[in-house]
Amino acid sequence: MSEVSQKRHALASFPGWQGAGAQAAPGVQLEISPYLGYLNLRGDPGDERFLQTIHAALGQPLPLVANTFTKALIPQEIAQGHLSIFWLGPDEWLLVAEPGIEKALAGRLRENLAGQCHSLTDLTGAQVLLRLSGDHARDALAEGCTLDLHPKVFKTGQCAQTTLAKASILIALTDDLPVFDVIVRRSFAGYAALWLQHSGADL
Amino acid sequence: MRAKASSPDKGDSGGMGKQQPNRLPRGGRIDRSQPLTFHFNNRACQGYAGDTLASALLANGIDVIGRSFKYHRPRGIMGSGMEEPNAIIQVGVGADTVPNLRATEVALYDGLTASTVRGWPGLDFDLLAINDFCHRLLSAGFYYKTFMRPGALWKWYERCLRKASGLGVSPQLPDPDRYTHRNAHCDVLVVGAGPAGLMAALAAAKSGARVIIADEQSEFGGSLLYSAARVAGNSADEWLGKALTALADCPEVVLLPCSTVFGYYDYNFLTILERCRDRPAEPRQGLSPSPPEREGSKRQGEIRQRLWRVRAKRVILATGAIERPLVFPNNDRPGVMLASAVSHYIHRYGVCPGRRGLIFANNDSACQAALDLAAAGAAVAAVVDCRAAGPGAIADAVEQAGIDVFRGHVITGVTGRKRVRSVQVTPVSADGKTLNGASKTIACDLVAMSGGWSPAVHLHSQAGGGIAWSEAHACFIPDKPGQDNVSVGAGNGSFALDACLAEGQQVGLDAARQCGFEPVPFSTPKTVSATVNPLQPLWRTPALQSPERSPKQFLDYQNDTTVTDVRLAVREGFQNVEHVKRYTALGFGTDQGKLGNINGMAALAECLDKPIAEVGTTTFRPPYTPVAFGACAGMDVGQLYEPVRKTPLHDWHEAAGAEFEVVGQWLRPWYFPRAGEDRLPLPLTKKAGARGAETGGEGGDRRKPFATLSLAAQAPGEASAREDLPEAVARECLAARNSLAIMDASTLGKIEVQGLDAVAFLERIYTHNVAGMKIGRCAYGIMLGEDGMLMDDGVMARLGERHFYLTTTTGGAAGVLHWLEQWLQTEWPELKVYLTSVTERWATIALVGPNSRKLLQGLNGDIAFDQADFPFMSVRSGVLAGFAVQVFRVSFSGELAFEINVESDEALALWRKLMEAGGQYDITPYGTETMHVLRAEKGFVIVGQDTDGSVSPVDLGMNWLLTEDKDYLGKRSLARPDCRRADRKQWVGLLSEDGTTVLPEGTQLVEANTPGGRPPRLPLAALLEGSRLVGKPGRARGRARPIPMVGHVTSSYYSACLGHPIALALVSAGRARKGDHIHAALSDGRYVKVKIVSPIFYDPKGERQHV
C-alpha cells in the first residue's frame, strides 16, 4: 500500500500557505486538515435494522435530524480516533475520520451491512476540509454564504450543504469560538481557499 | 457619528470668509478645524470636513453647476439629497473617475476634483443653449418626429444627440477599487433613520430582536438634523444623540449610515448599497472600526462599496417624504430651491444659499425656511402663499418676525438667467386657478419653494404594495403592503414630528412581538407640533399667458420635461401615464423623476380632466438610486471571477510547460510543446484566387489562438485559408499510434450506482443491454433526452451484481447526476438505487499505444494485463506499483489503451512512476487536442461538439446501441415521424479533394447545383448578405442564386498519422451518399470540393485496440 509521503493534498501548492494555515483577513484563521478519510453512506433511515447495524458497528447512531452532525470516538477494536457523521440528506451521510482509518471503518461497515440495501463509497481524497476560526470568521463567511450563521440560528452541532460564492460546500459549526469546518470538493479547494483569503477584509 | 456635530461653534479664520462667501460664521455639523481644498471645473475651492460637494459649492457662491439635458439651460443646486435633479457631476480623474454623481450625495474630501457633465465649449458659455430657443423642434417625442427621415441618417443623428445630451464619461481604465457583498439576516430591517425610523429601531432593538437600520445619509437623524423642534425637553439634536447612544447599546443592532436600500424583492429580500468610504469614522455596532478615509483618499485594499443582501422577517419603511417643487414659469433658474433644502444647508452645513430669499409655498412647512433665513442673517423678501388665509402657528411666527406675507398670491414670472434676480407675484383666486389682480415685482436672489410633500413610497411599491391618493395631504401614500412590511412616519403621510415618534415606536414594538420577542415598553418622547394650516394643492400656477406661450414651466428638471410637453402628448392621443412617461421622458432621468413625477401626473390629470388618483403613477422599480456595476460584481472579478478547477496532476503539467484549455470550469492540458518546437506549417492549400486573398480565413473557433498566431506570423499575400497544427500535437499523435502516450483524464465525470434495483434503473437510462453485462466488463453507453436526442455518453463498468460505475463527459458530469437523481426522486421513487459522485475521488491516467501493456506489465502489482486475462472492455482492481488502482481497458483512440483510476492524493506519485518507467518507450504526455485528433481518426463522437441537442443516435449511426426489446428514456421519441425522416442530417466523414485544406469547423456544406458541377461564385458582398439571398432569388438581381445547404462541419483536423486533413460533418441523408462530392463554403467566398466518406478514417476494423 502507498505511503502517506506519496500523498499530495489539493492545496499542497496553493500560494500563501504557511504550514497548515494561510494568510487571511485580520481576525480570521484559515487552516487545512489534509488527508482525512471520507466515506459516503446511503441507506433507508426508515429501516430499523440498517440504523441498528450502523450504530453497533460505529458505536454512534447516524444523525437523523436534518442538518446536524455527531462526533464520537471510534470503537477501539476498529481503530484509534474520532469519527464525525454529517447528515447530508434524508438517506445520505458523510463519515469523516482521522487520516488512514477509513479503510478499516469501511471494512467493518461492509462486513456488518452485508446483504442489506445500502451504498458505501470511499471518497477519501475527493474532498478537503478547511477550518475557519476567529472573531471575524462569521463576517468572512457572510460575504459569500447566504445562510444565516448567527450563533442563535446556526449552532454548534449543525451542518448544511450550501454554497460559498460559486463553490458547493458542506459547512459545520464545530465550536462556539467559532470554528467552522468547510468541506469542499477537491477541485474547488483552490478557489474556495483563495476566496476565504480575500473575504472578511475591511469590516 | 456625533463627532462632527460636537465641533465648537467658532468663527471663521481670516480669509476663509472671502473664499466661502455664503458660509455662515458659525453653526452647522461641519468640522471647521479641518478645511479641505477641492476643484470644481478647475477652480480651486474651499470647504470643510462634513460638507457635501453641494454644500461646499453653495458656500463658495457657485450658482451654475450644470447645463440641462435638452435645452442646455444653466442649472443650480435644487435639493440637498438623493432627489437632486440638476447637480449631476463627474468626480475624480483617470481610473477613479465616477460619472453622474449627485453633488448633494458626495462627501467632500481633500483634493476632490469635480466637473460638470454637460456644456460645450464650457459651462458658462454653452453653444447648445441655442436649443432653448429651438424648443419647437425638440418637443415631446422629437426623437420619433424630427429624426425619423431619412432612416439611414439615424446613426449620425444618434451620435450628435448622444454628444449633446449625454451625461458623464465612463472610466476607460480598470476599476482599481474593491467591492464586496455581504449576506445578512435580521428580524427587523428599518429603512430610514429619521425620527420614525429611529423610534422603530429603538423599540424593536430593546426587545433583543436583530435589527438592521440603514440610512442613505452619512448621519442618522433625518429631519432632526435640521429641526428647530424640542423633543422630550431637549433640542432635537440632543435628543438624537441620546437616542443613538441607546440604540448602539442594544445587543443585536447593525447601524448602516451612508447606506441606501435600493431594492425590495420577493420574500422580504432587500438590497442595500453601503458607501463604505463615505461613512463616519466611528466603530459600527458588531463590526470592527472602520477607516476614517473618505471617497478618493483610499487605503490599499480598502472596500469602496459593499452590497448587502438582507433577508428580513419584518421590514419597517420609514423612508420619509420628498418635497415637491412648484410649477411656475422659469422655475428652474439657479437660485430656485426646495424650501427644505434651504433649511438643510443652513442648519447642517452652516451655508446660507442666498442673500435675499423669497418663500413660495402652498403649505406651512416652508415657513421654517423663512425663519431659518432670517436667523442666518439673510433678508427675507417675502413669503408668497397661494392660500388665501388661515391659522397656523408657523405662519404666525413668520408674521411676528416682521416678514411680508403675500397670502393668496403666486409667482407668475422669474427674471435672471444664471441666478434669480426678481420674481413677479400676482394675486390668485381662492381655488388657485385664475389670476385676479395686478402683478408686482419683488427683488430676490433665492426662491425657496414648497409644493407639499410626496412620501417616498418606492420601496413599498417595489414590494408589491398598492398606493392610494390622500386628499388631505395631496399625495400618494402607501396602501395595503405587498409583503411583511409596514410604512411609518412621513413615508406614510404622517408629517408631524409627534406622530412620527409615536407611530415609529408602535410599529417597532409590534415588529418585535411579531418576531417572537417580548417588547420592552418605554415612554414616548414628548414634542410639541405646531398647529398647521392645511395644504392647498397647487399643481401649476395659473400663468399670464397660455402654457405654450409663457416661459417654460418645468416638471422634470433632469430631462427638461415641461407642462407643454405633457399637454402635447395628450393632444397627440397619449392618455396612459406609462405611455406619457415614455413619450415625454418624464421621470426617465437618473433621478427617476423623484421631484417631477407627481407634478407631471397632476399635469396629465388636468389635461385629461381626471382626478390624479385615476391617472395613477408609473411603476416603481429597483434600484431606488443608481448602483455602480462594481458593487454588483463584488468580489467576483479577476482570479475569483469563476472557479478554476484543477486536476490533481495540474502542477506536473504546468512544470512540463503545457498549454492549457478551459473545459467547463476545468483547466486541462491542451498540448505539451517541447523546447524549440514550433508550430508545424501544414502543406499549403492551393493558392487561393484573387478573391480568396482579400480576406483572411479563420480556423475553427476552438482553435482560435492557433488561427491568431498563424495570421500574425503569416507573410503578406500568403494564402490564408489553412490551419497550422502545433508540431507538438503531431508528435503526440504519432507517439500514441506508434509507441506510448499518457494523458490526464481526471476530469471525466464518475458516478457510482449501487442498490437492489441498479440494473432496472440503468436499463431505463441507457439504450444498451445493461442486464447482459458480466461483472468486470465495460460497455460504451449513451443516454438520450426525452426528445430522443443524444444527451451524454461514456463507459459503464459493472463492478458487482448491483454495483456499477459510470463515466460521463467532462462538461456533463453535474448535469447527468442531477438528471439521474431527478428521475429517481420524482418519477421512480420505488427503485432502491443510490448514486454517489466519485469524480474527484479518482484521478484518471490514460496510457495509450502499442507499448502500454508492456509498461504496465513491467511494474510491480497483482493485476494480469495480458489479453487472455484482461480483454478489451473490462475492468480490474488491484495494486500497481504500490498504489491501489482500478484499471479499465477501454480506448478513446483506437489503440491498445488502459485507463487507471488512482486516489487523487496519490495521482502525482503514480504519474511520476509511469513517466519514469515509460522512458524506455519514449512515453509522451498529450493533451486534449491530440485526444480530439485521435478520436476523430476513429470516428468517435464528442457530445457537444459533433452534437448540439438535435442529433439522435440514429443520425450518428449508433443503431447498434439501441435495444429493441426494452424501454428507455427517449425511445418513444425516436419513433416520431420527424426522427425517421430520410433527409435528416447524418454523421459522415469528409475528405478535401485537394488533400490539403483543413476545413474550418462550422463550415456550411452546399450542393454543387450549377451545370458545371460547381457552386455559383458569389461576390463577397452578396455572401455577407447570404442569409437574405437564400430563398429570395428576386433580390439577387440575377447574380446570386439560392444554394441548397445540406449540412455543416462538426470537427476538422489535420491527421499527422494519415498525412492529410480529415473532417466530420452532419450531412442531409449523408450515409447513403458516400462517394458523392459536395462543396464547403468558406467564409472568404471560396469553395472547397469535398468527398463524403465513412466517419472512421483509421483502422476501420478496430483491430488495434483488441490486441
Which SSEs are present, and which pair or pack?
The complex is a heterodimer of chains A (203) and B (1107).
Chain A lengths: L16 E2 L2 E2 L6 E5 L3 E6 L5 H11 L10 E5 L8 E8 L2 E6 L4 H12 L5 E4 L4 E7 L3 H6 L16 E6 L2 E9 L3 E7 L3 H10 L5
Antiparallel strand pairs in A: 1-2, 2-3, 3-9, 4-7, 4-8, 5-6, 6-7, 9-12, 10-11, 11-12
Chain B lengths: L15 H4 L11 E10 L2 E7 L3 H7 L6 E2 L6 E2 L12 E4 L6 E5 L10 E4 L25 H4 L8 H12 L12 E14 L3 H12 L4 E4 L15 E2 L2 E2 H14 L3 E4 L2 E7 L3 E7 L27 E15 L3 E3 L12 E3 H11 L6 E6 L5 H9 L3 E7 L7 H8 L4 E3 L1 E7 L6 E6 L12 E4 L2 E5 L2 E3 L2 H5 L4 E4 L4 E4 L6 E3 L9 H18 L39 E3 L4 E2 H9 L5 H8 L12 H12 L3 H4 L13 H5 L16 H6 L3 E5 L2 E6 L7 E2 L23 H10 L11 E2 H12 L2 E4 L4 E6 L3 H8 L12 E7 L5 E11 L2 E6 L4 H15 L6 E4 L4 E7 L3 H6 L16 E7 L2 E7 L7 E7 L3 H11 L6 E2 L2 H10 L33 H4 L10 E8 L11 E3 L13 H5 L1 H4 L15 E11 L4 E9 L8 E5 L5 E7 L14
Parallel strand pairs in B: 1-7, 8-9, 8-15, 9-12, 15-28, 17-24, 18-19, 18-24, 19-20, 35-45
Antiparallel strand pairs in B: 1-2, 3-4, 5-6, 5-7, 10-11, 13-14, 14-15, 16-25, 21-22, 22-23, 26-27, 29-30, 31-32, 33-34, 35-41, 36-39, 36-40, 37-38, 38-39, 41-44, 42-43, 43-44, 46-49, 46-51, 47-48, 47-50, 48-49, 50-51
Helix pairs in contact in B: 5-6, 5-11, 7-8, 8-9, 12-14, 19-24
